[in-house]
């Protein structure tokens, strides 16, 4: 998978030298030394990843520094572990706050990306794991949704991200035969994005990254496509068969036996076991001319083997857009 890595994660932003500002409470001028003092403390923080201190904020008005820890810490306690804390000559406060976490395919955050792992509640209270398809917007409602496979759940079911750290929303618009369902979400503030790259233990185990979704296209028999399941990772070289439409019958996690169809099917031309259980709902896509952006072509519905198969059945995006009245922007 080619493209510029753009993995999304939370970052600390270092401010430049602050302008001189007056602290009316202390009756003194706080100079540009404040950020430099914070810089020394940050150096010590970076060298001690297991230490109590995990974040240092410099107040925007230059009035002081906030040292953030996972557990309650007094200034004196921090000074014993971080010598630069004791040298700070501006107001210092401490704050207890959980350590920032990286956001990725397996623990995505709003706005949610295509290819992220999503989890709903199964028939016995167990977790049903599937994959988010394309972020889309309703033509008439204006609401934002994630497309996924209908056999993963049912209307009214609540969905979470992959590690239950953030809720997504309720399922709606279930279309059992086409195997399409929507999950309502708060909505992206930017263009739709898809998780690319690998997944630990998947067919592709390379580092994950993201790509923007530029548009969508009609699926054509004989063309070569890629998939991005949250258990297999991104896999290319799927060739679409000419025998359309594809239909299959199977039981879902609730034991309901249903037939699903009006689909396409594709073969892995190099025999890579590129789909497996949990990939359902994940993006099926092609690439633009320089491989930097993806073009939506469908979502994954079935695989020839839940433990790793080389044949994938998928619903095309044109059908999804029509029956669910949604668009990719």
Main sheet, how many strands, which sense, barrel? Answer: 8 strands, antiparallel
Structural class: mainly beta
Q: What best-fitting shape do the alpha-carbon axes yield?
A: elongated
How many strands? 22
Give the end-to-end Cα distance, rounded to a whole number of Å: 23 Å
Structural notes for this entry:
Mean pLDDT is 84; it is low at 1-37. The radius of gyration is 24 Å and the shape is elongated. An 8-stranded antiparallel β-sheet has the order 7-6-10-11-12-9-8-22. A 6-stranded antiparallel barrel has the order 15-16-18-21-20-19. A 3-stranded mixed β-sheet has the order 3-4-5, covered by helices on one side. The chain is mainly beta. A hairpin with a 7-residue loop joins strand 20 and strand 21 (311-316). The chain has 4 helices and 22 strands. The chain is 11% helix and 39% strand.
Give a short overview.
This protein is mainly beta and 329 residues long.
Keywords for this entry:
single chain; 329 residues; mainly beta; 8-stranded antiparallel β-sheet; elongated
Task: Detail the topology: elements first, then pairings.
Elements: E1 21-23, E2 28-30, H1 33-47, E3 53-58, E4 65-69, H2 75-81, H3 83-87, E5 92-96, E6 117-121, E7 127-131, E8 135-138, E9 144-148, E10 158-161, E11 167-175, E12 180-185, E13 193-196, E14 209-216, E15 224-229, E16 233-240, E17 246-251, E18 257-268, E19 283-287, E20 294-303, E21 311-316, H4 317-324, E22 326-327
Parallel strand pairs: 4-5, 14-20
Antiparallel strand pairs: 1-2, 3-4, 6-7, 6-10, 8-9, 8-22, 9-12, 10-11, 11-12, 13-14, 15-16, 15-19, 16-18, 17-18, 18-21, 19-20, 20-21
